[in-house]
Design goal:
Elements (H helix, E strand, L loop, with lengths): L1 H65 L4 H16 L2 E3 L13 E7 L6 E6 L2 E3 L2 E4 L1 E6 L3 H8 L1
Parallel strand pairs: 2-6
Antiparallel strand pairs: 1-4, 3-6, 4-5
Helix pairs in contact: 1-2
Length: 153
């Protein structure tokens, strides 16, 4: 009888150790997964900071591209743009006449024109991996008094 109690006690202890081992293994796998996600988030954050620093350079290159006929410069600018895009940078496409969207646009100037409509794009805006890096700077219509009065009549 004494041997059976010892066997039962050892079996219980073995089950307890097995459960503890399974829990520890699951905790380790969760830690490994969380650690990988944190590393990826840190890399994305570092790339986001780098993209923010490269945007003024991109603006300058795009300005140079507009004002030159040098094909070497144009090719270099295109290659730079393609490199940034392949890393995850996306241009925000905004057209004149579009409704002003404060989520992705920054109104830096207003002028007479259709109220809350984009009159012109001043500076491009960008997303990096679905995060807004820089809003599009736009000139927005504030409405015309004569136009507004006609609408009310």
């Amino acid at each position: 009888m004494n041997k059976n109690k010892k066997v039962d006690k050892n079996a219980e202890k073995l089950l307890e150790l097995e459960e503890n081992w399974k829990r520890a293994l699951a905790d380790y796998k969760n830690l490994e997964k969380r650690s990988g996600e944190e590393k990826a988030a840190m890399v994305d954050f570092a790339n986001l900071v780098l993209m923010e620093k490269l945007l003024p350079v991109l603006d300058n290159f795009l300005m140079i591209e507009k004002h030159t006929d040098d094909m070497g410069i144009k090719m270099s600018v295109r290659e730079f743009v393609n490199t940034l895009q392949s890393a995850g940078l996306k241009n925000i496409d905004v057209s004149e006449g579009e409704d002003f969207d404060p989520k992705i646009m920054d109104a830096v100037e207003t002028a007479a024109g259709h109220e809350n409509k984009v009159l012109s794009v001043i500076r491009g805006g960008y997303f990096f991996k679905d995060k807004l890096v820089r809003p599009v700077s736009v000139k927005v219509g504030r409405g015309n008094k004569s136009h507004d009065q006609k609408e009310k009549k």
